[in-house]
Amino acid sequence: MMDKKVALVTGAGQGIGAAIAKRLSKDGFSVALVGRHLDKVEEIAKEIQSDNGDAIAIKADVANRDEVFAAVEKAAKHFGDFNVIVNNAGIAPTTPIQTVTPEVLEQAEKINVGGTIWGIQAAAKKFKELGHSGKIINASSQAGMTGNENLTVYGSTKFAIRGITETTAKELADDGITVNAYCPGIVVTPMMNDIAQNVADEAGKPFEWGMEQFAKDIALKRLSKPEDVAGCVSYLAGPDSDYMTGQSLLIDGGMVFN
Question: What is the protein's known function (predicted)?
């Protein structure tokens, strides 16, 4: 193993991304936290540093290819190596089919799909430059495994990410680069709260009703914590998953069974 393991996590300012960054730090990684709002990622980076971790905050919008490449460059330069990228950033618009607009579709595609593709490109380029293998980990979703009502746009991007994961796993295998995805279920995050609120508003019901619509079909009968998902990513980032590529792991408490 290398003396220093370096991971970059996008969308690391809150929710799942913040939990992943903290977990990877605990696992011994130096972490670069990327987000659109510098103050948010700086706050999480400070938390990691105060817990004896090694972290930096980088401002970048994953929808912008140049900014993603620059972020990877900055992380590799700062830490002196680069081993793992977690393409976690994403948005989740609530879109009953008749409400989908070109603007909503384009924005979700740019961030969720585009951001993942740019992250894969930038990481693969950097791994090759450094002359070693690497791991690419993408955020799909339980909504990328099965259709979820009112999530046509979000679901379409998450189904796409599974396809991108399989395709690039084949393309990059000869370089020793693995590409896998994680598929969270219903995680209690600011983004999920927004989705539940929107679903509740559409139905003229309270917020709790909105959350219940998602929780009622979970076998383990509880919503996920961001830390649950971070544990799955920890496995994908570590040596125990070295012989796995092109896979999308469900970590949803038992909602979708394959």
Answer: Catalyzes the irreversible reduction of 2,3-butanediol to (S)-acetoin in the presence of NADH.
How does pLDDT run across 85-116, given as a tens digit for each residue? 999 999 999 999 999 999 999 999 999 999 99
**pLDDT tens per residue across span 183-213:** 999 999 988 898 889 989 999 999 999 988 8
- Kindly state the tokens that stand for 140: 């799909």
Write out the binding residues: 14-16, 61-62, 88, 154, 158, 184-189
> Residue 246 region, left (φ>0) first, then alpha (ψ -120 to 50), else beta?
left
**Which parts of 36-175 are beta strand (E)?**
55-59, 84-87, 134-139
Active site residue: 154, 182, 235, 243, which one? 154
Q: Where are the domains of the chain?
A: 5-185+225-250, 187-223
- Over residues 162-167, the mean pLDDT reads 98
pTM of the predicted protein model:
0.94
Give yes or no: 154 in active site: yes
101 class by beta-carbon count within 10 Å (0-12 exposed, 13-18 middle, 19+ buried): exposed
Q: Which of 179, 177, 75, 73 is nearest to 134 (CA)?
A: 177
Distance CA 167, CA 157 (A): 15
Which CATH homologous superfamily contains domain 5-185+225-250? NAD(P)-binding Rossmann-like Domain (3.40.50.720)
Give the residue ranges of the annotated binding site for NAD(+): 14-16, 61-62, 88, 154, 158, 184-189
